[in-house]
Every structure is written in structure tokens, then in C-alpha cells.
Design a protein that fits this description.
Blueprint (H helix, E strand, L loop, with lengths): L9 H19 L9 E7 L2 E4 L15 E3 L16 H10 L5 E5 L2 H9 L9 H7 L4 E2 L8 H10 L4 E4 L3 E6 L2 H24 L7 H13 L30
Parallel strand pairs: 5-6
Antiparallel strand pairs: 1-2, 1-4, 2-3, 4-7, 6-7
Helix pairs in contact: 2-5, 3-6, 4-7
This protein binds zinc ion (ZN).
């Protein structure tokens, strides 16, 4: 089946191919199963590409990716967009700095919410630098506008969210940026899960967390204040450095 591809330039075609590649990687890595999950990218002032409703992310066709406007309406000739588009639209509304968003069902992340176990916010240096902390949203019925309601509180400030009983939501400056955050989130959750099987998790000392918070800021990944206050008791000084390494 062919779909009319009006309003598509070479750049958009490339983004469509990237959405398919990211979907294949997610499916292969077990970050989604069956027709779970959805991927989007902002490609214009009022144009967002998003995976079609009921599609398997491992088997996407670039021509069949849906195109919607900021009200969530499918553009003329588009396939039917994902029912989770409200969550994605909320992210683009709140974050002019991001161009991509991914909702996935990473198993360890979901299992931890079912068991009511938090991803320890003071344990993994890489997670602290990359995310500050990872908020867990309230529960929302999947595939409804409630998805936007629960992410709205957090997505303006945090790049990786855990959706209670449902999965993850990561945003980024590119599709691969959002994918790498998803991979890092599930990997971090899995490491914490394994450590919990082995015994009590040893948190980093506050002064070490403070150094990581400072690095987060230096690398331009977000504010040092995004780190969980539970890791930084009152009086812990965060080293403030205005210039640092350019890349992380
Ligand atoms: Zn879902």
C-alpha cells in the first residue's frame, strides 16, 4: 500500500527512516513487544511524525509513518496516528528544545513500578549525570489523554520519566538521543534490580553526588538541582564550575 507523501522533503524522509531504525533497535532489545510503544519526531512548526496506531515498532515502513499537527489531527493522507500521541504532543508543547520522544515498555522499569521499588536515585553515577533523577508519574490509563496529564508535571524539566505500571517516556534533541536515554534508563533499572538481589544498595556519599550534579550542569545536560534532594542533605555544597568538558 502506498501513502501520499505530500509536504515531504529529503529531511523528512531521513527522519522517517530514522524512526524505523530506532523502532527496530527497540524491538530487538526487548524494550517493546508486539505493537507496544510509539516514537515521534517534530519536523516542522505544526508537523509531527509519529508511529501509526497498532504498528509493530520492529516492522515499520517509512512511508506509513503518520503525520499530525499540534492538535493531534492526522494530516491529509496520513495513516492513523498512535493513540498515545497526546503524551508526545504534551512534551513538544512543554519543551521547545526537544525534537524527538519515545514511549516504550522496558521490562525492568515496569517491574519495579509493579513492585513499588524505586530506581535508587543516589547509586549510579551515569544515571545521576544523565537524568538528575527519574520521576515516576501517576498511573494513567494507557492510550488515553490521561497520558498527557501525568507527564505534564515532569516533562518540562526531566528527559526520562517512568510511567507507573506502563513504561517509560524519554525525550531528546534527536531520535537517537531519546533512544540512548531509554537504553540507559532500562540498563540502570536492571543494574539496581540485580544489586537488590545481592543485598542492600550502597548509596554514594553526598559529596560524590554533589560532584556528579555539578558535572551534569557542566555538560549542559540539565540543572544540578534535578538531582534528588534525598541524596544531598541540607548543607551539601554543589561545586559550581562555569566551564567544563564540552562533551559527555
Ligand atoms: Zn504503552
Amino acid at each position: 500500500m502506498r501513502y501520499p507523501l505530500s509536504n515531504m522533503n529529503g529531511g523528512e524522509w531521513q527522519i522517517r527512516r530514522e524512526i524505523c531504525d530506532v523502532g527496530r533497535r527497540m524491538h530487538r532489545s526487548g524494550l517493546v513487544a508486539g505493537t507496544d510503544g510509539n516514537i515521534s519526531a517534530r519536523v516542522g512548526p505544526d508537523r509531527i511524525l509519529i508511529t501509526p496506531s497498532g504498528s509493530c515498532l520492529g516492522m515499520l515502513d517509512p512511508a506509513a509513518i503518520s503525520a499530525i499537527n499540534f492538535r493531534g489531527d492526522a494530516m491529509a493522507g496520513s495513516t492513523k496516528p498512535s493513540s498515545e500521541r497526546w503524551m508526545h504532543l504534551c512534551a513538544y508543547e512543554s519543551r521547545p528544545d526537544i525534537l524527538a520522544a519515545i514511549h516504550a515498555h522496558p521490562p525492568t522499569v515496569i517491574a519495579m513500578t509493579l513492585a513499588g521499588v524505586a530506581i535508587d536515585p543516589c547509586a549510579l553515577p551515569e544515571v545521576i549525570i544523565a537524568f538528575g533523577r527519574v520521576p515516576v508519574t501517576a498511573y494513567a490509563t494507557p492510550a488515553t489523554v490521561e497520558g498527557a496529564t501525568v507527564v505534564k508535571e515532569w516533562v518540562g524539566r526531566f528527559d526520562a520519566l517512568v510511567l507507573d505500571r506502563h513504561g517509560s517516556f524519554t525525550v531528546g534533541k534527536t531520535l537517537y538521543d531519546a533512544l540512548h536515554k531509554l537504553e540507559k534508563l532500562e540498563h540502570g533499572a536492571h543494574v539496581i534490580y540485580m544489586a537488590q538481589q545481592l543485598g542492600r544498595i550502597k548509596s554514594l556519599p553526598p559529596e560524590e553526588v554533589a560532584k556528579l550534579a555539578s558535572l551534569r550542569e557542566q555538560f549542559g545536560l540539565g540543572s544540578a538541582d534535578d538531582v534528588s534532594p534525598s541524596c544531598l542533605p541540607p548543607g551539601t555544597a554543589i561545586p559550581r564550575v562555569t566551564r567544563g568538558p564540552e562533551n559527555y
